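Why LOC100869307? Reviewers of the renewal asked for a concrete example.
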Amino acid sequence: MGSSERLHVRWNEYEANIKAEFSVFRQNADFFDVTLAVGSNRLRAHKIILSAFSPLLCS
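Here is what the prediction returned.
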């Protein structure tokens, strides 16, 4: 642990890759952790995504 060695990680084409990975998350129901209900409609979602885009849903 006393080493001062550094590691630099670079992810080429980050934007394209992150979009593709989030698409996979949307298709995989195992990762949904919240359900939004409006009338008789239900939408399963990810809390972290909702929180990132809504201060109301962040809490």
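The longest strand covers residues 34-38. This is the kind of structural detail the renewal will allow us to pursue systematically.
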